[in-house]
Description:
mainly beta, Thrombin, subunit H, 2 domains, four-stranded antiparallel β-sheet, 22 strands, 0% helix, globular
Amino acid sequence: xxxxxxxxxxxxxxxxxxxxxxxxxxxxxxxxxxxxxxxxxxxxxxxxxxxxxxxxxxxxxxxxxxxxxxxxxxxxxxxxxxxxxxxxxxxxxxxxxxxxxxxxxxxxxxxxxxxxxxxxxxxxxxxxxxxxxxxxxxxxxxxxxxxxxxxxxxxxxxxxxxxxxxxxxxxxxxxxxxxxxxxxxxxxxxxxxxxxxxxxxxxxxxxxxxxxxxxxxxxxxxxxxxxxxxxxxxxxxxxxxxxxxxxxxxxxxxxxxxxxxxxx
Length: 264
């Protein structure tokens, strides 16, 4: 019998609507306390101070539309947020502004979260977002918003919409790679510099809703709407290979909450 979850250390309340996304940022503790960023259904972003257990600030830049991705850059100084208003906003947390310092209009009406990869130059990064075409992924050089490439499966592939993205750069390669989970349940590995597909793995019967990848171990895991986790690997020839499939069961049904717990 499965063990019950551990009791929470504390509960954070006051997000004012259902919480859609969370992001921890605990680096640079000497200058900044550990913080938790939460995006809500009402379009607000709460920046929680985990020492005081209260929000340091509340950001409002998505016109009341749901926020479903938040990500910090440059050691908590910059924050990216993506919402259902088809905008990706850039916030300067160091300056304490209550309005975005920049924004990017997106073409996709889906809910695929973006992915970022810091580059060698300070203040520059790559950004992958769903493109204008149903099955396209757009890679941009930021903050200039210059298009690097558009990645699209071959005609007849019928992969559907991109559902999740993961940019990364292997130590043995000079260029970035992109893992994309698609609506048809497949995962594709792209070479961004060469603008071509390296490998494709059909591991789910339903859309790939999330994925994560450990570049050090060359192993990843993906989850689908069929309640299945697929563990896969990437070999030296950059081929995706399925390792095992895990089934999980939802033990309880909970409605969207305006509060959430931190557990150990």
